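FORM 7B: Structural annotation worksheet

SECTION A. Query
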Amino acid sequence: MCIVLFLVSFLVATAEGGRDAGLVTRVKETTVPYYASPSELNAYWQSVFPNRPIPSSLLDHLSAPSGNKMKDMEKEHYWSVYSDRLTEGDAKIFHNWAHRIASEKLLYPETVFTTGSKINLYIDRAVALHSPYLHRDIADSIPMSTKNFTDIIAMFAPVSPSMARDMWSTLSSCEHPREVAGEQKACTTSLESMKGFSALALGTGDLRAFSTSLDVPEEGISSPSQRYEVAAVRAITPRVATNTVTCHSMSFPVALFYCHAVNPTRIYEVTLKREGGDSIPESRTPAMVQALAVCHVNTSGFDPTLRYWVKLGLKPGEASVCHFLTRGDVLWAPASAT
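SECTION B. Predicted structure
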């Protein structure tokens, strides 16, 4: 909350020089530059999606952090690992390397989503889950670019070195081109722009949004020594693949999502039960989990050097690639497909 208040103060101060006068005018027209309560957020949601539930991952941004605080460590998110060290020419190398790291544990073949299957469960941690949503007029006024990094840092001061690194990494990731053939992508800084990109990518404004259950902890799940059994599988979209958009929460002081569409996809709600259940003392993994899984059906444009393909003994295009969504991700799909 104090970050956003400082943002307003910064905008007012810099506007005296005239550079951000238009921005400050919009700040003054908005009593609070961010969604301040669940009721305000829900009012907006119901105005555009009447009688449709708001995903829990969006409401998380209005609550205080819960659970264990994450230590300052290198991120495993493939779009935030050291991307601040890369030039445009290195983008493809970075993309391939990071996907290779992620594929070690985060990717699954679609065949595992059948009742009775047993897997080591890996769900990435949610990033910046409690960063506040700016109203669109304010969000659109902030020049989200590495070229304006010094100004952006000043807006959110004081900023620690690790926070500055994450902010640069996020902005840099948004600017790098993606290498998966046919992928559509955008970084969105407001609910309105997230909905707008999803509508554009999917060709309809009649959308439904989904998120992973609150059963999944913010810090994610890593079970190298404990296996989970698939207890139930429900298809969110029909077995016939459809187009969807997935938006991933990124490391930033205010809500910023990396939204992309690698289509077509199939979406599943998967219920998993840990082997041993509650009988395992002091287990750090939950006994029961309900999570969303996205399966990318057309993988012909995927990196052929992924260890995922080596493990399956297949090539891109010969099998789907699936992954679980984190607690902070939002999935968008045409209402007609759900």
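SECTION C. Observations
Confidence is low (pLDDT under 50) at residues 1-31, 66-101. The first strand starts at residue 118 and ends at 123.

SECTION D. Sign-off
Analyst initials: ____
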